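Morning, I've got a small favour to ask if you have a moment. It would help a lot if you went through both lines with me. I owe you a coffee for this, so here goes:
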Amino acid sequence: MTGEIVSVRLSHLLRQCGVGAIVRGQNFLLAVQDTSKWFPEGTAPESRQIQYVDQVRSSLGISEILCTPPTATVETSGTVMGNWIPAVRFPTWMRCPHCGLLHRQPWRESPEAVRFRCSGRQGEQCGSLLEQVPWIVVHADGYLADVPWQTVAHSARSRQPGLDQRRAGAAGPCWKSPPNLRILLGSRRPSVRCENCGLAGELPERIEFPARHGQQPWIREPPPEEVSEPGWVVDVNDVRIHLPATQTALVIPPESRIRKGTVVDRLYASSEVQRRITNARTGLHRRSILKRTADDWRCSVSDIEVALRELRNGYPLYGQPLAEGNLHWLEYNAFLDEIPDLREDEDFVTEHHTGAWSVLRRRTEGRLRKTASIVDRLIEVRRLQEILVFKGFSRFSADRIVAPDISGSSSWLPALSLRGEGIFFTISRRAIDKWGQQEVLQARSAVLSARLASHPVRRSMQGLKITPRFVMLHTLAHAVIRQLESEAGYPAASLRERIYAGTDEAPMAGILIYVSVPDKLGSLGGLVQMAKPRPFLRILQAALDQTSWCSMDPVCASHQGQGPALLNLAACHACALIPDTSCEFGNTLLDRAFIKGDPTTGVAPLTEFTLPEA
């Protein structure tokens, strides 16, 4: 079978195009195989390990090492250089859009072909181009299979008038001979008819999962446990077919301060060199290895000896314990700390503008002064590194995660190192404490919290505590992103939010708006220019103005529930929603009333609680 090359962004490979996803190629739909098939035999994933992320792994509760996926390039001659992610054609059934006749894997007879025509049956001359059927069977345990069309066609309990009884049985000739099935499109659900015996059955919404066909399109072995719950028959475009389980974390000090390219860095990253030095049989053999390594790295033997001592002393953390638990709390405090002796080549470079912001706040008047008083700290994030980890996927149920290697026995997880820049700012503690005393805010957030608890949600929102502070910060982040789209030259889809709402035990009130891409440089600096005090004040004021009015008002402002599961109040596409890729929480849990106020319910605007100093 001729291979089809599909170009996929690395960031998409660890999200919507990851293991178990159905990807649309130029000619076919393809199912992405699991990570046990990603590297050919003899190639170790450890060669692509992401270094200096022990803090990230600890805070995310990950014991596996993190490795970047294999990549390949296509030469002008068509030759593929490198390793590619394998995929299989799925669904394996194709249908004729003209006569409805089903064909099972027509590419088996013509491996080199990419287009197939309907040959017709019983004297028919169709000749129409075939297309893959759009219906598949999905199970909540993560299994995926073709619809058992033979079973569906013969599911009718009653015999049709005049039917040949000898050919209607389940063990009759129509099951032993090649399938002769035809899909009939109805007004409700399509049906499939067996032309051999005449029986027909409507495509059900749920059906017993065909475990005998395999647990995945590329795994012919049946599921390891008995499948008792029926599967769902859905369209291949149903978003519930593949729900990626990903986590992200920022690389913060001390690991972000590692000096890349030094001798100790190269030795730390080269376990093979370490092994050869450690296993040297004699002192002479060891000196020979050190000399060859020094020549390769263009350094001295003494440099390598010093690097070895650093490793023995605990490089890179030098015995500092790895923090566990609240990842956002660690990141939040890393932003607030002014790091001394910062170098531009570090992976977490910030510049604090809080002092300049305070001066600007005192020099402004009127509503601009109220607006400036909302923000307590303003920090320019000139460089950041984000680690994106793919932990698996689920189908229909966010609670049942399938490991990237299906079996869950792999010692590594696919991950990406993303680089970029951003703006970080915190909301005044004095203002937010006074604002949060409004009882009506507690009532509005309680409505959203109750709806969230009673509705199946994406994994990133499980266990999320909905407080007035969170809803306000989340809505404000969306308003700032929408304004940055026109001011900073970035499309909203390339910007992302990170909300630091905190709890009583870890009080936080911060927002990070950032861009990160799988590139060495990461960004061009357009976003950090907006982190300067004057441009940011302009952005913030425009964002607040944006929340105060919507083209759908007064309907939007007074809405008691809209969006998925009614998880938004005063927020719609015209005023607060942004691209789903930019939002941590699926464009839900938004309410402009938490910022602009609502006279009808007695909510006062956030700016009314800013008391600028004289």
The longest helix spans residues 468-487.
